[in-house]
Design goal:
Blueprint (H helix, E strand, L loop, with lengths): L2 H13 L2 H8 L3 H15 L4 E4 L2 E4 L1 H29 L2 E8 L8 H11 L2 E8 L2 H9 L5 E5 L7 E8 L2 E5 L9 E2 L8 E4 L7 H12 L5 E5 L3 H9 L5 E3 L11 E6 L6 E7 L6 H10 L16
Parallel strand pairs: 3-4, 3-5, 8-12, 9-10
Antiparallel strand pairs: 1-2, 5-13, 6-13, 7-11, 7-12
Helix pairs in contact: 1-2, 1-3, 1-4, 2-3, 5-9
Length: 303
């Protein structure tokens, strides 16, 4: 049984006339008669009583008519879903990100994406750079937002990039300064990610301190950026963060620019080279459209 036979049967059942059904389907009448006969042979039952020029549905015909209508609706919906998925306007996308993106980057991105693509189901995961790389390789995620440089095994494009800023408690002697030298924090204790995380942010911080001729003294280690900022708020120590984390009012923390900028810390979208999920392209395109706070420098899309 193919969909053409089903369509011809429904047309004939609704018209109760093979000629009018043929006109409706824009075919010749013998085509309608032939396909319905084949359908009856395949099902092993007669669907119409043929009395002269009149046709009436048999009991079997009446029973399968609503099922055939439902089948055609489902076929149309299947085509619609396939076409939408093929253009990235529906479907599902698994999106992973590092936790520092939560502060100011994800809210505008996800709001805009849901407005533009309401039929795409976004599954979110907060994962480290290493976890995202593994997730892309074993296909647990479709796209990641991770610190650069991106692995050579995936495709990537930059999203945001900027030097770090100092985060100090509100009562710190340098809290009211607009700009400081990093070596002014040499005697402070730092709150950092543990070295075992292999965090790109930690790498940039350590390198910046080395350039300023000191090694940061660690007061406390933490696994998440919000925990680090909470510990700075509590006076446990100081740290360096990307500017998109620098949101006044969330914690009692002051954010101060550095006179000599650190190396740039960047976040990049990454996805598999054999990706076929068009929603990944839709998410990346949305990221280029959103308005970010002025303090967050955006990078141009990679060619």
């Amino acid at each position: 049984m193919d969909l053409r036979q089903v369509r011809y049967f429904v047309a004939a059942a609704e018209q109760l006339h093979f000629g009018r059904a043929a006109d409706r389907m824009n075919v010749v009448q013998p085509a309608i008669s032939q396909q319905i006969k084949r359908l009856e042979e395949e099902l092993g039952v007669e669907l119409f009583d043929r009395i002269g020029n009149e046709v009436r549905l048999t009991e079997a015909g009446r029973q399968i008519l609503p099922e055939c209508r439902r089948l055609l609706r489902q076929a149309e919906e299947t085509v619609r879903v396939a076409k939408s998925a093929g253009t990235g306007t529906s479907g599902r996308v698994s999106f992973a990100f590092v936790d520092n993106a939560v502060c100011a980057l994800l809210p505008p991105l996800l709001r805009s994406f849901r407005d533009l693509y309401p039929e795409v189901d976004v599954q979110l995961q907060s994962l480290s750079r290493a976890e995202q790389q593994a997730g892309l390789e074993d296909r647990r995620i479709d796209i990641g937002l991770m610190p650069g440089p991106a692995p050579l095994s995936v495709l990537s494009e930059p999203f945001v990039s900027a030097p770090l800023v100092a985060a100090v408690p509100r009562n710190h002697p340098l809290a009211s300064h607009e700009v400081i030298n990093l070596d002014q924090l040499a005697q402070d204790r730092f709150v950092l990610f543990p070295a075992t995380m292999r965090s790109r942010l930690l790498e940039v911080i350590i390198a910046a301190c080395a350039t300023a001729a000191f090694t940061p003294k660690v007061a406390q280690e933490a696994l998440h950026i919000h925990t680090i900022l909470a510990l700075v708020d509590a006076g446990v120590g100081v740290t360096l963060v990307p500017p998109w984390v620098a949101r006044e009012g969330v914690h009692a923390v002051s954010f101060v620019r550095l006179n000599r900028p650190t190396a740039f810390y960047e976040l990049m979208f990454t996805w598999r080279k054999d990706n076929s999920n068009k929603a990944v392209e839709s998410l990346r395109a949305t990221a280029q459209l959103i308005s970010l706070p002025e303090a967050i420098p955006r990078l141009d899309r990679a060619s």
